[in-house]
Specification:
Elements lengths: L2 E4 L10 H4 L1 H16 L3 H15 L4 E7 L5 E7 L3 H4 L10 H8 L8 E5 L4 H6 L9 E9 L2 E9 L8 H68 L4 H28 L10 H9 L6 E7 L9 H21 L4 E8 L3 E8 L18 H10 L3 E6 L5 E8 L1
Parallel strand pairs: 7-8
Antiparallel strand pairs: 1-4, 2-3, 2-6, 4-5, 5-6, 8-9, 9-11, 10-11
Length: 399
Amino acid sequence: MEQQQSTEPTESTESSPLLNGNRELAVLYAIAGYLNRQVDVHDALQEVLAHVTRLLGLRTGWVWIFDDAGEPTVAASQHLPPYLADHSERMCGSCLCLDTFMGGSMEGASNINVLRCSRLKNAERDSDPSALGLRFHSSVPIYAGSTLLGVMNVASEDWRELRPDELQLLHIISDQIGLALQRARLSAEHTRAATRLATIEERNRLAREIHDTMAQGLAAIALQLETADALIKTKPERTHEAIQRALGLARHNLEEARRSVMDLRAAPLQEHTLPEALASLATAEPLPVVQYSYTPMLQFPALPARIEAGLYRIAQEALTNARKHANAQHITMRLSAEEQWINLSIQDDGNGFETDNVPTNTGHFGLTGMGERVRILGGSLCIFSEPSKGTCVEVSVPY
């Protein structure tokens, strides 16, 4: 991709007719309001692209956002030609506009107007109709302070060079996008910090609850046993009653202890959300490769500690089974949150087994423990498996 033209902003653009026009100011106001109200960044960028392309009389646009590792991803797109839209691999990797901005070789990256798109050079060479005649685009950086967050490109098959005042308008919009992205990231960091604090408070609460429950329960059992010991020779009937009460208290407190222990968070959950902990679990061993995904990607709901611990342990057991017992070559794990349910599925291509003929005396595949955890969480567990056809574990629990 080669740079075709550069246009330096001049002082006259500060009072350009475009920025003074009521329609353009109304669009800027609408974009600012939408970015402030919209929680999902991708939805906001999609709406901004629609406004920008309509305002400039263009058709196509896309926005690159750099992730924490500095890799660019397409966060929003508007009317991409089939040449790009139907071949996602053509929107991967570097190109001139991205390399230019990331390298900082152009002064502030503010003077770029028209670029010949390197992603479309093969289509241009071969006269590929699926590119819809698209050749050029205008690129505008998205900053938060001095930090480059992404790049916004706008294009059209009947390309015309953008005027300096139009480029200035794009820069104003890109600044608004940068502020919105920075705000979203700060909000995400605040959410993670709040989650960690809530986790610590929950652990302390559970510790106090376990201590109080067990201490009171053991004291009551001891009292009944002392009574039985004092009456064993003189009043055997009352001794028997005291022992039965002690047994009842012991069973009740044992069940309470089990519930409390289920509420305790697994160690990987101490400072991480459930999606983050499962990601670490998926990559704990290099082989077989575990393909892991979760939805929603943003603002995964905060869950009670007992649900996170239960799902983590179920996933841990299922992955261990697939890796060490089923000889799986590939594993897919998915976590999703709906309005009232959390769903976890783990699919492997391992040996499989007959679900109607599972040995009960060997703890085969840990099904008993997994079923017990799901039962305590009030959810459902479905296991689908056939010999030589792999196994699928599906768990749904309410929250």
